[in-house]
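Researcher: Structure prediction, please.
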Amino acid sequence: MQIYLEDYMSELTNIENGKVKLSLKIPAEDYRRALESAYRRTGAHYNIPGFRKGKVPRKVIEATYGVNVFWDEEFDSLVQSVYSDALAEHNLVPEIQPNIEFTEVSEQDGVSFTAEVVLHPTVKLGQYKGIEAPVIEYNVTDEEVSAEIQKKLNEMATEAAVEDRPVRQGDIVTLDFAGFMGDEQFEGGTAEGYKLKIGSGSFIPGFEEQMVGMNIGDERDINVTFPEDYHAENLAGKPVVFKVKVHAITEENVPELNDEFVQDISECSTVDEYTAYVRGDLEKRAAERAKNERTDLILQKVIDNAEVEIHGDIVSAEVDMQIDRFDKQLQSFGADLKSYLEYAHLSIEDMRKDYEQAAQRQLKSQYVMMAIIDAEKLEPTDEDFREVIAMSDTAKQQHWDDEKIDAELKDNRMKYAVSALYNAAVKMLVANAVVPAAAAAEEAPAAE
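Model: Predicted structure follows.
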């Protein structure tokens, strides 16, 4: 099929499902006109000995700076204009940047190029209203309340240096260690001045237990075996020796739970009052967890019910973006992707394969939600915006009140537009979900 876009010619062919090729041609006359326009617009910028500024002939500039000097000036605007017109004419919606290849660029024959276009996936929605999802409940136990209070006590513990006894469970030990496999030190197994809490389970099984009984200044060989599922394949399941030296021992002094302690760390007056406060906080978190899990269950069913064929190039582009983002995070900590892969004994192909599965799920979720938003013609309310803002990291960290949230909404509404729209869609799906009949019958009170 051929159509003419004013002076431009385009031809559309299918490459495969979800991908097409546009063959585009800019006639020689239009190309020459574009070059001449670029020369008139930018020719005065070039300084060449023997010519007055602004009077250098075009051919002289091209001979000095290359025949494509003015083509480079016009490239983006000219090609983008033709490409955009062709997309509109053929009713194409691209999803990622096209792969453009030039087959001809000359004043005699004009410009010919192809653009391989990956199209926005077609979504076939399944059932998304009336999704069955049981009500989820988590009951807070006395043991959980006690554990939460003990956690707070441990956080408020003070440290005191120990001089007159050996290491025991619960101590924090400052040590040097060097790991050996046979006679060779292995990478990542050496540190100096490292602080380790004995009993924390943060080291290889058996390491911390063998430190119990050591005194300051003691040196010891600690024999352990790496777990079979250890992330570094060269160490997984292998026996090694750590040469260890203890430099310091400190013990934690956990405060006593009493009214005075409670008054210091909270607005409560008594232990009973603080215990009730902790229980209420845990119940609030449990309710939020239950709500989120039910929402996730509903969303997963909605996504599973839909059919979306996502072209591999879209997935590859998403993986590229995620790996690039991860590399930037590593660089912010003074590392890079290459060193990470070497440390983890991974190839870039292994990493891409791991990322591809997550990217497929994430992309399908996005396309399904966008299709539902379109089908329902959803528009976010101010309340949708407020909820999204309240859940932002900044709002939670700085404890924004309603007034601050409203001010943020007024000043930066567009910043939250996509998230608010997604929030509106999620709330609609949850509101239209139903409790399975069997579960509803169990929850219903017995008739008298």
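Model: The chain has a mean pLDDT of 90.
Researcher: Thanks, that helps.
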